[in-house]
Specification:
There is one protein chain. The protein starts with 6 loop residues before the first helix and ends with a helix. By secondary structure, the chain is α+β, with helices and mostly antiparallel strands. The longest helix is centred in the middle third of the chain and has 30 residues. It has 15 helices and 20 strands. It folds into three domains: about 220 residues, HUPs (Rossmann fold), CATH 3.40.50; about 80 residues, Up-down Bundle (Chorismate Mutase Domain, subunit A), CATH 1.20.59.20; about 110 residues, no CATH class. The chain has a six-stranded mixed sheet with strand order 3-2-1-4-6-5, with helices on both faces. Strands 7-10-9-8 form a four-stranded antiparallel sheet. It has a four-stranded antiparallel sheet with strand order 11-14-17-18, with no helix packed on it. Its EC number is 6.3.4.19. It is found in: Cytoplasm. InterPro entries: Lysidine-tRNA-synth_C, Rossmann-like_a/b/a_fold, TilS/TtcA_N, tRNA_Ile_lys_synt, tRNA_Ile_lys_synt_N, tRNA_Ile_lys_synt_subst-bd.
């Protein structure tokens, strides 16, 4: 049975209690029923409670003509409640799923707006949780997906909170009617071509006619699965702790794990650990695409297997798996002459290069490997560069990006590789700073 209406503000405050010291509570305000109730509840509570600063954010997608009037409506509601409103216009990227593209654009705006010690509040409720569970169940989701939408998670530099997940849509409607609230009815919410709308209007009503407690039961199942997911995450951390070993190539800034501690685990624990690690790096593959992991894991020692995923690639080299994305997947551009070796040299798409000590006499050029290069080493004579890189276990994905210092046709140094990166007698070394992920994305 639902809790008495009088409990709604009390429950909301209880759910938000851990976040009372935040700098700002920013409400994601679409103007629809759910977010209107959340905004009204918080604005009323702020009259009697000491709350963080309240503000609202409305994201305008521009996908339908009727939506052009919504920012004005939202401004009117916020003005009436004394809550400042920020309207953000976004461009929805075309793609197979309009729902997903709109969501991505919306959350992109939320991430940009959420600063340190700020929280974004969204108004998803118990019925939304049930719809999410059913939708993901029909798509064959695992425990991670079936745990539903979390009540809180990191967002941008702050946090996202969903404080109404234990409240039904009927309770929100009753509150809105009691307080004579005005809200927007989005016409697209009636369009049954969208899967969630079909579930909401065609499937769930039939289920709740037969099983009145279906929505509450599904929300409860999502909570159980969320707890199970937490246990799986703890197990993943245990397994990953053994694989997060140091590498002599940590200076690359490329996420990596030692393979053998993971490969010793059962297949299910391997998938659990790798999924947990990849979740922060890419959209995860469905179960049909995990054969790529097995191919990567089981490849022979001299192979260079690659597992291509949505947002990058997983490579195997030197007994480790390496996550490559953004600039690592694009070729480094030609550099040419280093006109002023006393200054750091920006390598297009490949970080920066500088000397420590007094640079050698020029003219100096920077090139990348093409094959067939050789170096003269003081103690070893003429040596093939490929063999030297093999001796040092340089991962294959790095070799084409390692800056090579030339004077004329003479290879003087290979950046960052001890014994190859300079001249001990003359006291100089060639230091390469690969681009960071942020540099690559920018």
């Amino acid at each position: 049975m639902s809790q008495p209406m009088i409990d709604l503000p009390v429950r909301l405050l209880l759910n938000l209690k851990p976040w009372r010291n935040a700098k700002t509570w920013r409400i994601a305000f679409s103007g629809g029923l759910d977010s209107t109730v959340l905004l009204h509840l918080l604005a009323n509570l702020a009259k009697t409670e000491s709350l963080p600063a309240l503000s609202a954010i409305h994201v305008h997608h521009g996908l339908q003509a009727v939506a052009d009037t919504w920012p004005e409506h939202c401004q009117s509601v916020c003005d009436g409640l004394g809550v400042p409103l920020q309207v953000v216009h976004v461009q929805v990227q075309p793609g197979a799923s309009l729902e997903r593209a709109a969501r991505d654009a919306r959350y992109g705006a939320f991430i940009e707006a959420t600063q340190i010690n700020e929280v974004l509040l969204t108004a998803q409720h118990r019925d939304d949780q049930a719809e999410t569970l059913l939708f993901r169940l029909l798509r064959g989701a695992g425990v991670r997906g079936l745990s539903g939408v979390p009540s809180q998670r990191p967002l941008g530099r702050g946090h996202l909170l969903r404080p109404l997940l234990d409240v039904s849509r009927a309770e929100l409607e009753a509150y809105a009617t009691e307080h004579q609230l005005r809200w927007i009815e989005d016409p697209s919410n009636q369009d049954h071509q969208f899967s969630r709308n079909y579930l909401r209007h065609q499937v769930l009503p039939v289920m709740t006619t037969r099983w009145p407690q279906a929505v509450a039961s599904m929300a409860r199942s999502a909570a159980h699965l969320s707890e199970a997911r937490g246990l799986l995450d703890e197990l993943a951390q245990i397994d990953l702790a053994h694989a997060r070993t140091d590498s002599e190539f940590d200076w690359l800034g490329v996420p990596s794990l030692e393979l053998s501690p993971i490969a010793k685990r059962s297949a299910a624990r391997q998938r659990n650990a790798v999924s947990h690690w990849l979740a922060a790096l890419t959209r995860l593959p469905d179960s049909d695409h995990w054969s790529g992991w097995e191919d990567l894991r089981d490849a022979t020692g001299d192979a260079r297997p690659v597992w291509r995923l949505a947002d990058g690639e997983l490579h195997r080299a030197g007994g480790r798996i390496w996550w490559l994305s953004s600039h690592w997947l694009r070729p480094a551009l030609d550099v040419g002459r280093w006109a002023d070796p006393s200054q750091a040299l920006v390598l297009p798409g490949n970080g920066e290069l500088e000397f420590t000590g007094q640079p050698p006499e020029g003219p100096l050029h920077i090139r990348y490997r093409e094959g067939g290069e050789a170096m003269n080493l003081p103690d070893r004579g003429h040596r093939d560069l490929k063999r030297l890189l093999n001796e040092r276990g340089v991962p294959g994905f790095v070799r084409g990006r390692l800056p090579l210092l030339y004077r004329g046709e003479q290879l003087l140094a290979v950046a960052n590789l001890r014994g190859l990166n300079g001249n001990e007698q003359d006291g100089w070394n060639l230091h390469w700073q690969p681009p960071s992920e942020d540099q690559g994305l920018s």
